């Protein structure tokens, strides 16, 4: 059977993954076999989410009635019902509902009734609390088939420590990243010297290590010194797989969905108030704005180096008329050319336009020139993929250290991946 749970936490505490880890142990205690624990991220632009829009699914062998009653009991025991936005859902399905529902939930928006209709058709046991919205995530979690997977080991704190400062040795996190990157990622942001894997919210998570296999996340985890976790769970996840992305064109983007869009840069990127950088791309007559917000830090330097005429693939969520960039591919770099009216050789003054298609004219002596002065600068950016730093990465965004299947890894990225020959999984 597949057990799905979602929407149990609030900004004040709890985490659906913790509840899932505790449930897995209770099922095992009752002699059921937990074959797999899945952490499933859904559309990152859903406004109902508390933090990262996660749901969980457990693949279990055992008595479905007993499992359903244990899952409902743990939700009643641990979910934060006091929060208006907490609307839990539990599903126990003996056959997997149509995976198309997961695809929709990770890329688009779903209705509660769609989930209920699917559960009825699949003959699943289910229960929703309050407005029952959690049934969407719980149904998506059990219906999902992932074409690509990664792993995360989550260490959870003892309940007596929830809400207190976390004790995790900072240097051991940097050492774990150094020893296991690029097989694990986003433990820290080495460039900005920031710890990424330890949350600041009052939930039960102590830290989480993401990587390509259980062996690699375990190896990184073994290098971390911290307060003693109460529970640890390795999750199979769709994190870091770009599962949220759709192919898009400038004229076909829908609010709250995430895309790869190929287009031509129309003008030089501009830095606005707050340090946010914007520019536009165009394809077949339509134009869309792209944004690299201040939290994307050094990524903005890459964006500022784009020039008009560059062909790029912009990747990110379309929100309020802009693509919020997660990464870009510079496919065909343009020449960096700036033009200005020529100097009048007699007067040493800049000429001005003599009218449309009429060249330039010196206002002082009346001399004419046909062509503008052209200045070409060498490009600082070469073709290839560029991404936001780990501090700004969304859970679903595929890090470049995992490779970019449809475009070979550019040399620059390989170099930055710091591939270490000595790093072999334990
Ligand atoms: P938690 O740890 O509780 O899962 P979270 O940040 O993951 O926290 P939730 O509290 O689960 O966020 O809130 C997300 C809500 O949005 C859930 O009720 C979920 O069922 C619902 N939801 C998820 N994806 C979609 C979607 N694509 N369309 C509509 N609703 C969705």
Structure description:
By secondary structure, this protein is an alpha+beta fold. It has four domains: 2-143, 2-Layer Sandwich (Alpha-Beta Plaits); 150-237, Glycinamide Ribonucleotide Synthetase, Chain A, domain 4 (Alpha-Beta Complex), CATH 3.90.600; 245-335 and 379-421, OB fold (Dihydrolipoamide Acetyltransferase, E2P) (Beta Barrel); 337-377, no CATH class. 21% of the residues lie in helices and 30% in strands. It has nine helices and 24 strands. The strands form five sheets. A nine-stranded mixed beta sheet has the order 5-4-1-3-2-11-6-10-7, with helices on both faces. A five-stranded mixed β-barrel has the order 13-15-16-18-17. Strand 14 and strand 15 form a beta hairpin. The longest helix has 15 residues, at 64-78. The protein is elongated, with a radius of gyration of 26 Å. The two termini are 32 Å apart. The structure holds adenosine-5'-triphosphate. Residues 6-9, 15-16, 42-43, 46, 48-55, 87, 105, 109-110, 133-134, 136-137 line the site of adenosine-5'-triphosphate. Adenosine-5'-triphosphate (ATP) is lined by residues 6-9, 15-16, 42-43, 46, 48-55, 87, 105, 109-110, 133-134, 136-137.
Task: Provide the descriptors you would attach to this structure in a database record.
binds adenosine-5'-triphosphate, 5-stranded mixed β-barrel, 9-stranded mixed β-sheet, alpha+beta, 4 domains, Alpha-Beta Plaits, 9 helices, Glycinamide Ribonucleotide Synthetase, Chain A, domain 4, 24 strands, OB fold (Dihydrolipoamide Acetyltransferase, E2P), 30% strand, 426 residues, disordered C terminus
């Amino acid at each position: 059977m597949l057990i799905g749970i979602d929407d149990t936490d609030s900004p004040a505490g709890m985490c659906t993954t913790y509840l899932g880890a505790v449930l897995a142990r209770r099922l095992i205690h009752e002699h059921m076999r937990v074959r797999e624990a899945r952490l499933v991220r859904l559309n990152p632009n859903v406004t109902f989410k508390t933090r990262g829009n996660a749901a969980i699914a457990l693949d279990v062998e055992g008595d479905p009635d007993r499992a359903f009653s244990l899952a409902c009991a743990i939700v009643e025991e641990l979910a934060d019902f006091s929060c208006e936005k907490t609307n839990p859902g539990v599903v126990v399905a003996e056959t997997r509902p149509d995976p198309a529902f997961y695809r929709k939930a990770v890329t688009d928006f779903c209705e509660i009734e769609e989930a209920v209709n699917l559960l009825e058709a699949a003959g699943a046991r289910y229960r929703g609390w309050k407005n029952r919205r959690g049934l969407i995530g719980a149904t998506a979690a059990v219906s999902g088939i992932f074409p690509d997977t990664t792993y995360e080991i989550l260490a959870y704190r003892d309940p007596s420590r929830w809400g207190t400062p976390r004790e995790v040795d900072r240097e051991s996190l940097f050492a774990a990243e150094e020893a296991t990157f690029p097989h694990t990622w986003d433990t820290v942001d080495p460039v900005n010297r920031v710890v990424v894997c330890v949350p600041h919210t009052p939930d039960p998570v102590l830290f989480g290590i993401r990587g390509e296999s259980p062996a690699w996340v375990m190896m990184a985890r073994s290098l971390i010194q911290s307060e003693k976790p109460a529970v640890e769970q390795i999750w199979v996840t769709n994190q870091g797989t770009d599962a949220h992305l759709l192919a898009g064109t400038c004229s076909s983007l829908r609010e709250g969905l995430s895309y790869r869009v190929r287009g031509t840069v129309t003008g030089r990127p501009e830095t606005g108030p707050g340090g946010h950088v914007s520019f536009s791309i165009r394809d077949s007559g339509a134009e869309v704005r792209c944004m690299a917000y201040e939290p994307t830090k050094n990524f903005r330097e890459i964006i500022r180096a784009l020039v008009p005429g560059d062909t790029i693939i912009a990747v990110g969520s379309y929100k309020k008329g802009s693509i919020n960039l997660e990464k870009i591919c510079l496919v065909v770099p343009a020449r960096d050319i700036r033009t200005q009216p020529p100097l009048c050789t007699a007067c040493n003054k800049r000429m001005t336009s003599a009218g449309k298609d009429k060249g330039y004219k010196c206002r002082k002596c009346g001399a004419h020139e046909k062509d503008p002065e052209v200045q070409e600068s060498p490009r600082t950016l070469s073709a290839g993929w560029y991404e936001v730093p780990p501090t700004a990465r969304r859970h679903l965004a595929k890090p470049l250290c995992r490779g970019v299947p449809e475009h070979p890894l550019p040399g620059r990225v390989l170099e930055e991946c710091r591939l270490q020959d000595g790093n072999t999984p334990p």
